[in-house]
Write a structure and sequence with these properties.
By secondary structure, this protein is an alpha+beta fold. It has helices at 14-19, 24-31, 41-49, 104-119, 134-143, 199-204, 210-216, 233-248, and strands spanning 4-8, 59-65, 71-81, 86-94, 124-130, 146-157, 160-170, 175-177, 184-186.
Amino acid sequence: MTMIELKQFHREDFSRLIQWVPNARFLSRWAGTNYVWPLDTQQLSATLERTYGLRPPHYMFKVVDSGTGESIGHIELVQVDYVKRTGHIGRVLVGPVECRGRGYGKQILSKLIAFAFSELGLKTLTINVFDFNKVAIACYTSIGFRQVEFKKNVQQFGNETWNQMLLQLNRTEGKYERVGGSKTLESDARIIVATNRNLDREVVEGNFRSDLFYRLNVFPITVPPLRKRVEDIPLLVDHFVQLFNKKLSKHVEAISKPD
């Protein structure tokens, strides 16, 4: 699967997003009552206005294929409360039909969760989903969202009446539950992990749990490989010379350089 990144949504992205919404039913499933059919630039402009400023209550992102630079989706973070440290995820969309059902949704959500928790410092995220959308529910719960509310008959579409679930995800801060347990336990520990793997890619390929990744990915530090910082080699050599001198009771003063 292709690696993706989230980039700020702009006015020039309006037409592409509008093209991805083919009919009124699709619009209702995707945006609820926030937009009316047909979706147009005026409605999107009104939403985009809420994203301006230093600490906006609303963020709009386009999902970009890291390899090609093409937009393949959309996601928003709304109702951001910087005091309560809460936010709501909305309007998740994988645009091109050929890209749907291939796991992009989980990757998009993981990116937004990392942004909300790590960059904005939020503690709680919520998301709404209609109860008939089993694929989306499975995606959200696999990441760690849990149902906290169920509302009947929240929306009408033609002769249909839709029920809605509210799911919630809390950032873990000193509290946890054992796998299979129901009791909340407390701990006072700081966990530091290191890897030589690209965990973004490992999550996409199903080799690393996405719910664990966003919990660990709070303050990432990327260290370039030694081949890209050869100027550090003399410092490392000096360090190990002193280390092994002490350990082995030697008095090596220097190591000759290769020709």
